[in-house]
Design a protein that fits this description.
The protein is about 40% helix and about 20% strand. The chain is built from 16 helices and 16 strands. Bound molecules: iron/sulfur cluster.
Length: about 475
């Protein structure tokens, strides 16, 4: 545990964020009694002290007050812990948004680099990644309020992965699945009618989860036919993605259903091509199942396939990611998304780490090598980075990056991360974001997470969502 004594609660969250970067997976407590660190903030300066020393920094007008507080704590803790954090003080989940907005304001590349360094201490390679992504996104990011995207959520999976905090029903409770699908179809129909009445233009559709294909073929077809009728039949749809996810949920019939209802892009997600690791993280399939289902999809004519990977999975080392990258390169997908391992509260992995059962934490240098190998994979596959986001509690404090061949970018991913397009979401735990472009404002409405609650309160959620949408449309 790390105990901090802070004189001004107004800055508690900013101070916490910086300590959490260096002492992630350690409990951080603010106290009035015995402390490890003392942080004093007054009108002129910030002081941080502990048993080993102190640092004092005076506020200056060229930098915002909170930024200065973060920077001072960051400098002190970097020196003390000798941990190098490439993103600097940046804790937001959308670091490329800053580059895109600076680019729109006319900043040159070198000015953008200076800006990140001055305000956040971000390392140059990460800044360049942000700039590259901002360039890729620039012409794709939405500019019209009438253009929207649709998200549909299926909260079931064949089994639960070690690192997943997904709390809805897992497995096959047929009664619950049927009840859920009935409610989902009702929501799709109501929202579809609303979109039609308002003559909104659907840009992209994303069917995710959980695993949309975890249900039976008939159940899957029921949902897909509804999505097609109420959303995908809209002539302007430029992309319809189904996140198939797990190969153990796929068969030829499901692929044919996707073809029948106009799916343009799918994601088959190995995470790793090492069988030992697949077993360890709770996946009931092997790497050869991934290859078989991938080839099946190709044979059936899918020409835009994404594959998700996770760097630094428990028990994996550089040699293992080397094997994964070699196998993925042979398959040659159209895009890959490389995730850092995120330790989410509520996951079995989080519990393991908290209970100190996980003795396999990797040194940062090893994590960096794993990331570098995935960058090399993207280059070998002739892909470029096109979107990125970060999450809290990522091992090694890294980022998730999507790479793709030119023209095969996941457009929905870009719209979702850049938050310039309204996304209407249906299903349990699905979050609708209404974007007021003129006011640079976003309003959110989240459907309840619990599947039974979702079923019982479906009309209430539809009505509240429409109420929110009516404030814009
Ligand atoms: S496939 Fe995805 S949603 Fe399903 S249990 Fe694994 S991590 Fe969670």
């Amino acid at each position: 545990m790390v105990k901090i004594k802070l004189n001004d609660d107004l800055y508690r969250y900013d101070v916490y964020q910086m300590f959490n970067l260096f002492y992630s997976f350690t409990e951080i407590e603010f106290t009035e009694d015995i402390y490890d660190f003392l942080v004093i903030i007054d009108n002129e300066k910030i002081v941080i002290k502990d048993a080993d020393g102190s640092l004092e920094d005076y506020f200056n007008e060229s930098i915002n007050y909170k930024e200065q507080i973060k920077k001072t704590i960051f400098i002190y803790l970097s020196e003390k812990t000798k941990i190098e954090l490439p993103w600097g003080t940046l804790v937001g989940i959308r670091p490329s948004k800053i580059a895109l907005s600076l680019m729109d304001s006319g900043y040159s590349e070198s000015e953008i680099i200076e800006y990140y360094k001055k305000h956040y201490f971000t390392r140059e390679d990460k800044i360049k990644l942000c700039i590259e992504i901002a360039k890729a996104e620039k012409n794709i990011v939405n500019t019209s309020s009438e253009k929207i995207s649709i998200y549909i959520g299926m909260p079931f999976c064949p089994s639960r992965c070690l690192y997943c905090s997904f709390t809805s029903s897992i497995g096959r409770d047929e009664k619950l699945v049927n009840m859920y699908i009935k409610a989902l179809l009702h929501e799709i129909e109501s929202i579809g009618q609303y979109i039609n009445d308002k003559a909104l233009c659907i840009d992209t559709i994303y069917f995710g989860g959980g695993t949309p294909t975890a249900v039976s073929d008939n159940q899957f077809e029921d949902v897909m036919s509804h999505i097609y009728k109420y959303f995908a039949d809209n002539k302007n749809v430029s992309e319809f993605t189904v996140e198939c996810g797990r190969p153990d949920s796929l068969n030829e019939n499901k692929f044919l259903i996707m073809k029948k209802y106009g799916v343009t892009r799918i994601s088959i997600n190995p995470q790793t091509m090492n069988d030992e690791s697949l077993k360890k993280v709770g996946r009931n399939h092997t790497s050869s199942d991934i290859i078989e289902k991938y080839n099946m999809a190709r044979d059936l004519g899918f020409n835009n396939i994404n594959m998700d990977l996770i760097a630094a999975l428990p028990g994996e080392d550089v040699n293992m990611i080397e094997h994964t990258c070699n196998e993925i390169q042979k398959l040659s997908p159209d895009s890959i998304t490389v995730h850092g391992l995120c330790v989410k509260r509520g996951s079995a992995l989080y519990e393991n780490i908290l209970n100190n059962n996980n003795n396999e934490r990797l040194p940062q240098s090893e994590i960096n090598k794993m990331y570098e190998r995935t960058v090399e994979l993207s280059k070998n596959l002739k892909m470029k980075p096109y979107y990125m986001y970060r999450q809290k509690n990522m091992i090694g404090n890294m980022e998730n990056v999507g790479y793709s061949l030119t023209g095969k970018e996941g457009i929905y991913n870009i719209q979702m991360i850049e938050e310039k397009q309204t996304i209407i979401s249906v299903g349990a735990n699905a979050v609708t974001k209404v974007v007021f472009l003129d006011e640079n404002r976003i309003e959110r409405f989240a459907n309840v997470k619990d599947v039974k609650e979702y079923v019982n309160r479906i009309d209430e959620m539809i009505n509240k969502k429409i109420e929110l949408l009516n404030t814009l449309y």
